[in-house]
Amino acid sequence: MKIGLEVHVALPTRSKLFCSCRTDAEEPNTAICPICTGMPGSKPVLNEGALTLAVSIANALKCKVPAATSFVRKVYFYPDLPKNFQITQKDDPVGIGGEISIEQGKKVGIRRVQLEEDPAKIIRQDDYTLIDFNRSGIPLVEIVTEPDISAEDELRSFMTELKSILYYIGIDIDKELKVDLNISVKDARVEVKNVTGMKNLLDAARYELQRQEKLVKAKQEIVQETRSYSEKDMHTVSSREKESDEEYGFIFEPDLTVYRTKGIKTAEPVYASRLAREYAKKYGVGESTIRELIMFNKESLEMIESYKGKHDMKPILNAISLLQRYATAKPTAATFEKTVGLLEKGFYPDKEAILGIESGKKVEAHAAAGTGEIDKEIKHLIKENSKLLKEYEKNPKVFNFIIGAVIKKYKSNPREVSERLERILEGFKR
Amino acid sequence: MDDREFSRLLKICRIQMGEAERAKVKGEVDEILEYFNSLGDVDTKGMEEAFHPITVPEKLRKDEASDFNDINMLLKNTKTYRFYVVGPNV
Amino acid sequence: MNSIREFLDAEKPEGYGKRVLEELSKLNEKLNAFNNITGRLGEGMPFSVKDNICVKGVETTASSRILKGYMPAFNATVVQRMLDNKFSFIGKTNMDEFGFGSFGLNSQKPARNPFDENYVAGGSSSGAAVATSVLKYHVAMAESTGGSISAPAAFCGVVGFTPTYGALSRHGLIDYANSLDKIGIMARHAADIRYVFEMIRGQDPNDTTSIEGKYASEDRKRIILVDQLVNGIDKEVESSFMGLVDKLEGMGYKIIRKSVPFIEKAIPAYYTIAMAEASTHPASYSGFKYGYKNEDFTQHYNQFFTSAREQFGEEAKRRIVLGTFVRSASVRDKYYSKALKVRSLLLHELEGVLNEGFILSPTMPIQVPRVDDAGSLTPLEVYKTDIMTIPPNLCGLPHVSFPYAYHKGMPLAAQLVTKQWNDEAMLGLVDGWEKGFKYRFKYNIGELR
């Protein structure tokens, strides 16, 4: 069983791929011009920002970036395609032959990365269509993988890794990625077009695999075809005939030229999942804890990078997750230091405390409360309830109310308090 | 070019022809292709494909957005419904 | 001689502009030079625009039924630059549909030759040439892909200039074949052309392929006759042409004969590339966003597109089918890719020859044909008449056609070709020629006394 993907990513540029129209318009047909509506006489001019981002993606996916890249016309007829040809890439895309490492310890090959224009949005009515050209011409990067994915969990991991890499390049991953799935159980390759969202992707793959396996078992032929996924019915259906390469009749796009990739300044790629693995090993912390914090969070990664020499990793990670949960703004260095400081002293700040730290007030009381004071409080509470000491031999839980009381008073870390209580009680026993 | 190939081409081009027109055009197309075949006589070993007759230096546009001023005039060319362009059934 | 200066300096009688356009409209009923005369003739020098170049708010159809009603929402860069320089736009000129033709006959109302209406005007910029031939003060924005300026300029007895590819912005030009299309200029004098060319050329941020050329002005006083272009042509054309060669020799030009092997392969190479590129454009014309409207939206889109595309003329259909075929994946190397390599080879060959001097040939290998005779040629026979004009067009080389004699009342013209960006020296030679040879015209609408 083999799965290959074609993932379409919309690039977060201010203007479209070949014209200056905005990319953020909402009212239909308000960000359009002769170029993105395909009016006769208009000519495309390539967006520098889109080219840079596309090369950054190719680079991050470890592709070979050819010295020069160029565009072709792919001719097919559909009402959402203003010129009835799409400007895309074929022989000289921005990237070829890359890879992504996934959690299962394998690598999924990236066949090519190409830059192209998005068609318009089409809204189907009963017996006609309504077309909004705002989307027409928005830059897309298409990432084509090798058919290296062979299980559902690999598919999930691949998408997570890919999204994380894209996130660190600045792609808005909240926008659903559009994916075409190529699935083959035997020889015939079935393409499932236009699946959006992780859940749909997994459902579509699962359904299509089962469908094909069933056919194999029944010794029936699997037809090489294009299918589409229905979210409502959770199954795939055979869809319109698609043109083949023969019919697309690719030619060089003569309104554009050949673009050198050499001088393009790309962003340094970030592989969050590799960093998580490295830090987990180096600092003896849980890999999944770090992954959760940094896969899709630049600020967290920045905090780890800037504090990792100064503090232990464990309080750093705790501080990040607390600040992520409660802080109202991007934490300043002072806020972070104070939070880590409290954690190191055995306190476990709650929402109120974090807000206090942020505003520079109120926390002083808690911050002043060193471990000595906590011990004093615990001892005080034990003495007040000394009659329970006898029972403690049989039931170690009788003093657990102290943990709650201390946490309430000092916002301390529960595990920390229970460890201290246990140690102090040991002393009383002797 | 055989008949089936010619029919396939017409379909890809979304062009319809009546019997007489079809026969005439197909004959002409065959004659012209025969002539195009003579390109094979030229030795082009070592030649690159010349996509343009001149060297076209790269021209890039800065990623800055601006609005097209005459959207209304543009849309006057087409039938619209509530700002959407009306298109054929899919 | 610069008639632009002359026009601007002259005193115009009251109602001059209106009268000129009235006379022009009347003559247009006979000659079909214009698809529409919509402009107003103000103080500026009049200019016309071939109907495949966009003028904002003015119907622009490339003489195709499928674009009927298309109103561009923007001006082509060359049009904008003419307007910025106070020229007066007067109307859109007739042409072969999309530029597909050598005689001007692939139009619903073919333009007629102003010297005699029984003869063709030449194509595809037929109307631009006719307009130039009948208007005393006027320049035409025309366009050439494979000879669409030279051929009609020759048949209508005007000067037709096609610059180096990329010299004039194509922004606003309805494409025929993008890597071959060049906007150019027709006028009655080489000096007028040079004046306008210098005014509107230069790179344009709206057209990737428009560039700021490194212009030279090199005239080595040598004229090269290419054997393959001079031999085997119409006898009358050949002998008149040799008369021109003698006169140029008299003007101090050294005549050199050369052979350029494979130059005739420029024709199949050109038509292959042109059709491959051309077949992708009419793909856009599908009956709902602009131009011709197919009203029945309930049809399935394939049916909808197919029925809209019945509006294409015969030559357009032929080129779309052929072009679609030659770029099909399975034969791409044999045709499209091979043609691009032949272009490389010829570019290289011609560059070597043009480093030595100008190439001169008759513009057309035939005399001006009668409408009936031209109409009975097969498509391939028509393509082959482009032998002189195709090599410079395929290779983006500047060329100019100018009249040098009259035979039985019809003009005969020659074509000069030079190396890329040496446009001005070439126009200079024609300017020199005009000092000793007076062009003839049957009409002089707008003449000022």
Describe the structure.
Chain A has 430 residues and is α+β, with helices and mostly antiparallel strands. Chain A folds into three domains: 2-175 and 240-260, no CATH class; 272-368, no CATH class; 371-429. Chain A contains 15 helices and 16 strands. Chain A has helices at 48-60, 152-169, 198-217, 245-248, 272-283, 287-294, 298-307, 313-326, 333-344, 351-359, 363-368, 371-384, 388-394, 400-410, 414-429, and strands at 2-10, 46-47, 68-69, 72-75, 85-88, 95-101, 107-117, 121-124, 129-132, 139-145, 178-184, 190-196, 225-230, 235-238, 251-252, 259-260. In chain A, the strands form four sheets. In chain A, strands 6-7-10-1-11-12-13-14 form an eight-stranded mixed beta sheet. In chain A, a hairpin with a 4-residue loop joins strand 13 and strand 14 (235-238). Mean pLDDT of chain A is 89; it is low at 364-369. Chain B has a domain at 1-40. Chain B has three helices and three strands, in the order H-H-E-H-E-E. A two-stranded antiparallel sheet of chain B has the order 2-3. In chain B, strand 2 and strand 3 form a beta hairpin. The longest helix of chain B has 18 residues, at 19-36. By secondary structure, chain C is of the alpha/beta class. Chain C has one domain (1-449): Amidase signature (AS) enzymes. Helix content of chain C is 36%, strand content 14%. Chain C has an eleven-stranded mixed beta sheet, with helices on both faces. In chain C, a hairpin with a 2-residue loop joins strand 10 (399-407) and strand 11. The model of chain C has no long low-confidence stretch (mean pLDDT 95). At the B-C interface, helix 1, helix 2, helix 3 and strand 3 of B face helix 9, helix 10, helix 11, helix 12 and helix 14 of C. Strand 9 of chain A pairs antiparallel with strand 3 of chain B.
